[in-house]
Amino acid sequence: MEESRAGSSSSSSSPSGYALGxxxxxxxxxxxxxxxxxxxxxxxxxxxEFKLVEAFGYTLGGLFLAHYDESPAGxxxxxxxxxxxxxxxxxxxxxxxxxLVNSHEACRHGRKEIGLPSHVAIFSKKNRxxxxxxLNKSQISSIHPKxxxxxxxxxxxxxxxxxxxxxxxxxxxAGYSWMGPKIKISLPSFSGQTVYNPNLLKYSCQVExxxxxxxxxxxxxxxxxxxxxxxxxxSFDNFKAKEKKYGDRLATEDVGRDQSIEVLLSKPxxxxxxxxxxxxxEAPIIIHSESRT
Length: 293
Description:
With 293 residues, the chain is mainly beta. 15% of the residues lie in helices and 45% in strands. It has one domain (3-288): Acetoacetate decarboxylase-like (Beta Barrel), CATH 2.40.400. Strands 2-4-5-6-10-11-13 form a 7-stranded mixed β-barrel. The chain is globular and about 50 Å long. The protein starts with a strand and ends in a 5-residue tail after the last strand.
C-alpha cells in the first residue's frame, strides 16, 4: 500500500510559511460532515467555561477531512474530529477533540499557535475498486481528484514509534456534472486548554469554495494491516491496554483518542464537499488566560 507518510510534505519545503504570520492561507479540497453525537461522549472534551449545545441527549459533531495542495506547511492531509457545538454567549462554535495531520510542521503550529489537539498521522489512500490488485502510484490520490473513483483512506496516528489505528474512511462515488455554487462562509471555533497552549482561544476560518451536498462518507474502525503497523499482532484494544501501563498521561490520552473515534462512528446527517477551497485562518485571540505553574 502506498502511504502519505507523516512529515514527508514539509521536509521538502522551504522554511515555514507560518513564520510570515497570519492570516495563514490554505488551498485544496475538503469534506465537511456533520454527525449526531451522544452528548455524554462529548462532555469530557468541553471546557467548564462553555455549555454544550444539545437536544434530546445529542449534539452536532462530525469531521473535516481536507487535502491541501498549498499551505504554509506545503502539501498535507488533515482530519479534524469535531466533538460538538459549544455555547458561549452570544455565539456558538465548534470544538475539535482531535486533529490529525501528516506534517510535523503543521502539527507543531496547530499545537502552539492555534491551541489545537494536533497529532501526527499517516494517511494511506487507495482506490477501492483495486483492493484486490497491486497498487501503483497512479492509483494513489488526494481526497477527490477523480470523483468517479471510490476511495479508501486509512488513518493511523503516530505514538512515539508505534502506529495506532484510528479509522477507515470510505468516500462515495461522485461525479463532476455539477460543482455547486460559489460561497463565502466563516467557520468560528474555540480551542486551547491543552498542555501546549493552556489559554482558551477563539479563531475563525474564512472559507471560499464551491460547495455541494454529497453522500456521507462511511467511517469504520480500521482493521490493522501488517504493512502499516509497527507491531502487527496488536489490535486497537490491545494498544489501549498497553498504553494504560505507561501512566496517567497516556491513559488520559488514550481515552481522548477512543472517544474521538466514537464521534467519527456516530450517525452522519449531512455531508458537504468543498472544491476549489481557499481557507484563510485568522490568528486566534485569547478569551481566557490561564497561567501555568
